[in-house]
Amino acid sequence: MGSLSLAHEPVTGISHGKLGMWIFLATEIMFFSGFFATFIVMDAANPGLFEATATALNWKLALTNTIILICSSLTMALAILNLERKDTGKFRMFLGLTLLGACGFLIIKTIEYSGKFSHGIGPDTNVFYGIYFLMTGFHGVHVVAGMIPMIWMLGKSFSKKGYTNAGRVEVLGLYWHFVDLVWIFLFPVFYLLYNPSLVWGAAAAAGGH
Predict the structure, then answer these.
(1) How far lies 143's CA from each of 140, 147, 163, 172, 185, in Å?
(2) Which of 42, 53, 67, 166 could form a disulfide with 83 if both were Cys (CB 3.0 to 4.6 A apart)?
(3) What is the pLDDT at residue 206?
(4) What is the sign of the dihedral through the CA atoms of 154, 64, 131 and 175?
(5) pLDDT tens digits, residue range 179-203?
(6) What is d(CA 25, CA 23) in angstroms, rounded to the nearest whole number?
């Protein structure tokens, strides 16, 4: 009797790359959940410190970065869509815009960090800044990690054979949406949670129009 030959496609119907990315993102969620839990515990252990320190953060730069990442998620989705349609030109344009957004995010974050360092503020200043630099820095590493395959795919698209693997770009898109989602949580926690006047002021301004 011949041996049973299993199909290469997984039973779930999901590609191996996409399934692997979902598993990887699940572990990343656990990492960041631990960071957020530490933030809550340390906030409770240091009454008043987090509230007093958070007001010194530059929320305008952070808001700009939030908008940039949200837009980059959109351009990533459009890059995938156009590669599936075999529109190489638009794929390059939208993936390039996503990469540009990532660069813009890192530049703004560098400006924000430099401002703190120039005033003698660093991870060892107090517990709040320690967690702030750890979590935002770890997120920044994820941004850089996402840029590497973007650069490779974009460069490959200019080769004679071009780049046609929409599945891999879709997997990268999952990762990039996760990076965006994490920042959407980091932004309110560090920049808005202890500055409710910013939220209410923005709501009042919007209501006035």
Answers:
(1) 5, 6, 22, 12, 15
(2) 166
(3) 46
(4) negative
(5) 999 999 999 999 998 876 665 544 4
(6) 5
> Where exactly are the structural domains of the chain?
16-196
Q: In the structure encoding, which two tokens stand for residue 191, read together?
A: 């920049």
pLDDT of residue 6: 44
In terms of residues, how long is the chain?
209
For residue 175, what is the enclosing H or E element?
helix 166-187
Q: How far is CA 201 from the centre of its chain?
A: 27
Instruction: Identify the pLDDT of residue 202.
Output: 45
Token pair belonging to 56:
């010194």
DSSP for 22-48 reads HHHHHHHHHHHHHHHHHHHHHHHHSTT
Which CATH code fits 16-196? 1.20.120.80
pTM (2 decimals)?
Answer: 0.86
Burial of 2 per CB tally in 10 Å (0-12, 13-18, 19+): exposed
Amino acid at 191: Y
What are the tokens at 65? 């970065």
What would the two tokens of residue 54 be?
């958070």
Residues of the chain with pLDDT under 70: 1-14, 196-209
